[in-house]
Specification:
The complex is a heterotrimer of chains A (214), B (432) and C (271). Chain A is built from four helices and ten strands; from the N terminus they run E-E-E-E-E-H-E-H-E-E-H-E-E-H. Chain A is an alpha+beta fold. Chain A has a single domain, classed as Ribosomal Protein S5, domain 2 (2-Layer Sandwich), CATH 3.30.230. With 432 residues, chain B is an alpha+beta fold. Among the domains of chain B are: 207 residues, Ribosomal Protein S5, domain 2, CATH 3.30.230; 58 residues. Chain B contains ten helices and 16 strands. In chain B, strands 1, 2, 3, 4, 5 and 6 form a six-stranded mixed beta sheet that branches. In chain B, a hairpin with a 3-residue loop joins strand 5 and strand 6. In chain B, helix 2 crosses helix 3. In chain B, 32% of the residues are buried. With 271 residues, chain C is α+β, with helices and mostly antiparallel strands. Chain C folds into three domains: 80 residues, RNA polymerase II/Efflux pump adaptor protein, barrel-sandwich hybrid domain (OB fold (Dihydrolipoamide Acetyltransferase, E2P)), CATH 2.40.50; 78 residues, Nucleic acid-binding proteins (OB fold (Dihydrolipoamide Acetyltransferase, E2P), Beta Barrel); 95 residues, Ribosomal Protein S8, Chain: A, domain 1 (2-Layer Sandwich). In chain C, strand 5 and strand 6 form a beta hairpin. Chain C is flat. Classes of the chains: A alpha+beta (214), B alpha+beta (432), C alpha+beta (271). Chains in contact: A-B, A-C, B-C. At the A-B interface, strand 1, strand 2, strand 3, strand 4 and strand 5 of A face strand 3, strand 6, strand 15 and strand 16 of B. Chain A: It is found in: Nucleus.
Chain lengths: 214, 432, 271
């Protein structure tokens, strides 16, 4: 099976007020993500044992009280960070959708991970998102808006980089009808994409840290 | 999260510098920061940057019913989103007084100044109008928030195109962008906002203050005007008393700025129109920063190859109907199932199986026709008990038993009772 | 590999600082290996180190990375240099705190962490019950963190074990600003410089020439807090503005010539 991952571009640390920020795009889909923390939290929301997560994905149009993506991003980040290391603190992750040309969920998850990396706080493993859609029995990774609109099924994988270097699934969000065979095929397509995205993380961070080389 | 407080030394140095005409970013007191405007590839989106302040605006339109007081005027709604990205003190989905002030001022500048022709937004008087929604997202705060937001909103409104409609006898036809070209909004003028900081009771003006400077100043005044030299709004959020001369001076500065910025906005919109008329979909906000910056990275698009997974032939047989079977008691729900309840459920399940085994002659279909009400069943039960006292060997008519685990199994047949006495005993205990 | 950089200032770009690369086309910095959270460190050079430092956790036998950074090892210590902006309190760090309130025997300070920090009024040089330090809200002090259990307020002190100040205490006049934190060096050098977390540690490391170059042109006093705050004091406000500008922009400059050129430009530039 073959697929195509669109061109990825990323820029870090460009916001003045946020601790970690990333502007990430895949093709024409672009998001801005910011991560601030660990910081103080109001007593009403404080958790004595662990860190509170304040995560929100905000689309560029419309009311933003709730977004479908909040769930998968929250579950991924709560697994990525060891929340019990920072009791009575909070971390605020905000992802603004700037331009949507398909695969916005995956781009949002990748942007969130970049923002966390830019923030520099301790967490367990890097993660990324891959969207696989099914258009007439053919599986497409990282679809454009046109491909996504004509798809009969979509599955968004949130993938972790396991300790042995192999990608592991953390959570999935599937829309449409999928049977296990198709899901397996989608996952086998998603794995090398995830590996490619993790390589990109490494190259960007390498470049950012090259300032230390004297 | 809290923001570190302003220290005495910072305030002292900033004020001293301002009083001698110097600023930390090497501007003069009457110099504005550079403005950068980008429009997106979706119509009606724009990002505006003034120094470190970054604001994005997006415009969308919907058909709605007009209010009864203004049946032939369209509606413009403005919404501002302050997120922790802009300032860590903000909270998600919460506006606060700063946000409310921003919304009110933007409404004043954009809606109340009547810069958009709302009557052209009417489709059918009294029943259908266009409701235009402007979403302003504050992405980074560093002073002059209103200026940036206003500019982004105005650019987005200029950039926006609503779908073309045609009125039929009984319905309205909305065309997609491929059938008929969308129509831009009818905008009369462009109000541009300027924030001017004031020091020493208004005697000194500091144009376009950054956030740190604004925290040290006495107050600030906001002037919105357009290039036709009309003042659209005048606002002060602090309580300074200003003389007419001071206000006139600020307005003059704002007028010059409005002219310059109007030219910038017009040129950007014109460039974008040219690109689109050549049927090129512009890049919009896709990152075009040079690869020379250290904190950026690019990865070219690449082919992904994956091993083919084994596809077993799909089994075409449909599984037969299966009644619901409890596989696992849920062990994970902490405290939700009390220990006594679990035992009761288990007990009921046990009872069910024993009854099912022992009462073999009760056909499943019988249950459907002869379901009796609880009251009737009780009466029957009492009668049977009384009769049973007299002669326990008599055959009784078969009473139906409802085999649902939620209700206690009604055990009225004496024979059954004798056959399975422990159940009956348990039953009685339960009924208590 | 040798990196040659030039700084240019383009005020109308979306990002304020960037560098132009000359010569080498690829960016790989070969001597430095970058690690992301979740990686396991297997390098032989680090295996003989006995002290596991910042950003690395020992899980069983494996050295697991928890923060993104470049691996550094020196004399039996191994750690990662991490770039970040938010400070997490560590005992022994010298930080700059802003006084927010005074409650009973304590001053409550803000050091940029989630919880406030406290300092007892007796922890100042020459302080007695009668002679309390005269600090108001908004003053800044330079102090050492000596107790930082999580979930409690960190406790600071302005004196060392022998009740001597050694440069700590209130900072008068001058100007303070914040930069990012780079955990570059394990040893904290005990002179006063404030810089962003990254930038902070880099400025006070001995291999950094920024302060020396600055000293050739300006006469100034500088204090660095490990929480990313820098305090500078110079003879005129003009100088303060110029030094502030250089320190902020020098975060991304590594080459000495360029640094000198930048300082020179700034020095002769009229504010």
């Amino acid at each position: 099976m073959a697929g195509r991952l669109r061109e990825m571009r990323c820029e870090l640390s460009f916001l003045k007020n946020a601790d970690g920020s990333a502007c990430f795009s895949q093709g024409s889909t672009c998001i801005w993500a910011s991560c601030s923390g660990p910081g103080d939290v109001h007593a009403s929301k404080a958790n004595e044992e662990a860190m509170t997560l304040d995560i929100s994905y905000r689309a560029n149009c419309g009311d933003n009280k709730f977004s479908v993506l909040n769930n998968i991003i929250q579950s991924t980040i709560s697994k990525a960070i060891n929340l019990e290391l920072f009791p009575h603190t909070t971390i605020a992750v905000t992802i603004h959708g700037i331009q949507d040309d398909g695969s916005i969920g995956a781009v949002a998850i990748n942007g969130a991970c970049f923002a966390l990396l830019d923030n520099g706080m301790p967490f367990e493993a890097v993660f990324c998102g891959v969207l696989v859609v099914r258009v007439k029995d053919e599986l497409i990774i990282d679809p454009t808006a046109k491909q996504e609109a004509s798809s009969t099924g979509r599955v968004l994988f949130a993938v972790f980089n396991g300790t042995d270097g192999h990608p592991e699934v953390c959570s999935m969000d599937a829309i449409g009808q999928w049977d296990f065979n198709q899901l397996e095929a989608a996952w086998s397509l998603a794995q090398p994409s995830a590996t490619a995205i993790f390589e990109f993380y490494r190259s960007v961070m390498q470049r950012k840290h090259s300032i230390d080389e004297h | 999260m809290r923001v570190p407080p302003l220290t005495i030394c910072e305030k002292a140095v900033i004020l001293e510098a301002l009083r001698s005409g110097k600023r930390f970013d090497f501007r003069s007191l009457e110099e504005f920061r550079d403005v950068k405007l980008v429009v997106g590839s979706e119509v009606g989106t724009a990002i505006c940057t003034i120094g470190n302040t970054k604001v994005m605006a997006a415009v969308s339109a919907q058909i709605a019913e007009p209010s009864s007081m203004r049946p032939n005027k369209g509606v413009i709604n403005i919404d501002v989103d302050l997120s922790p990205m802009a300032n860590v003190a903000n909270e998600h989905d919460r506006l606060g007084s700063k946000g409310m002030e921003l919304i009110r001022l933007l409404e004043l500048i954009i809606r109340d100044s009547r810069c958009i022709d709302v009557e052209s937004l009417c489709i059918r008087a009294g029943s259908e109008i266009w409701k235009v929604r402007v979403d302003v997202r504050i992405l980074d705060e560093d002073g002059s928030l209103l200026d940036c937001a206003c500019l982004a909103a105005i650019t987005a409104l200029q950039h926006f195109k609503r779908p073309n409609v045609s009125l039929e006898a009984h319905h309205t036809l909305i065309y997609s962008e491929y059938e008929k070209a969308p129509v831009p909004l009818n905008i009369y003028h462009m109000p541009i906002c300027t924030t001017i900081g004031l020091l020493d009771k208004g005697q000194m003006v500091v144009i376009d203050p950054t956030e740190k400077e604004a925290a040290c100043l006495d107050g600030s005044i906001v002037v919105a005007c357009n290039k036709r030299r009309e003042v659209c709004a005048l606002h002060q959020s602090t309580n300074l008393v200003l003389t007419t001369k001071q206000i006139e001076r600020c307005v003059k500065l704002a007028m010059a700025r409005a002219e310059a910025l109007t030219a910038v906005v017009s040129s950007i919109i014109k460039e974008d129109r040219q690109e689109r008329s050549a049927f090129k979909r512009p890049d919009g906000f896709a990152i075009t920063t040079p690869s020379l910056i250290l904190t950026t990275g690019t990865a070219a698009s690449r082919q992904i190859k994956a091993p083919v997974t084994k596809r077993e032939p799909e089994s075409s047989q449909r599984s037969l109907y299966q009644p619901s079977v409890i596989i696992n008691e849920n062990p994970l729900s902490v405290g939700s199932v009390k220990q006594e309840e679990v035992d009761e459920d288990e007990l009921l399940a046990e009872q069910l199986t024993t009854i099912q085994n022992s009462v073999g002659q009760v056909a499943v279909t019988d249950n459907q026709n002869t379901v009796m009400s609880n009251r009737k069943r009780e009466v029957e039960e009492v009668n049977n008990l009384l009769e049973g006292l007299d002669d326990s060997e008599e055959e009784e008519e078969i009473q139906t038993m409802t085999l649902g685990p939620s209700e206690p199994v009604v055990n009225t047949k004496m024979v059954v009772e004798e056959e399975a006495p422990p159940i009956g005993l348990v039953k009685r205990k339960k009924k208590k | 590999m040798f990196l040659k950089c030039i700084t240019h200032l383009y005020l109308n770009q979306l990002i304020l600082h960037y560098l132009l690369f000359h010569g080498n086309n690829h960016v790989n910095v070969s001597d430095m290996s970058i690690y992301l959270p979740g990686d396991v460190i297997n390098e032989p050079s680090s295996s003989d180190s006995s002290i596991i430092g910042y950003g690395i956790n020992l899980r069983g036998d494996k050295r697991l990375v928890t923060q993104p950074g470049a691996l550094r090892s020196e004399e039996g210590k191994v750690w990662l240099s991490v770039h970040s902006k938010r400070y997490i309190p560590q005992e022994g760090d010298r930080v700059i705190g802003i006084v927010t309130s005074k409650t009973g025997d304590f001053f409550r300070l803000d050091i940029g962490t989630a919880e406030y920090a406290m300092i007892n009024f007796t922890n100042f040089e020459g302080a007695t019950k009668r002679n309390r330090p005269n600090l108001k809200t908004g003053d800044i002090i330079y102090a050492t963190v000596f107790d930082s259990t999580p979930r409690t307020e960190a406790e600071l002190t302005c004196v060392d074990d022998e009740k001597r100040a050694r440069g700590m205490g209130q900072l008068n006049g001058g100007y303070m600003f914040k930069v990012s934190i780079l955990k570059l060096d394990m040893d904290c050098y005990l002179y006063f410089v404030q810089v962003s977390l990254n930038h902070c540690r880099r400025l006070i490391s001995p291999s950094c020439k920024i302060l020396l170059t600055l000293g050739n042109f300006f006469k100034f006093e500088i204090t660095v807090g490990m929480n990313g705050r820098i305090w500078i004091n110079a003879s005129t406000t003009d100088d303060i503005i110029k030094i502030h500008d250089i320190l902020v922009k020098s975060e991304l400059v590594t080459d000495e010539d360029e640094l000198i050129a930048m300082v020179q430009n700034n020095y002769t530039r009229s504010v």
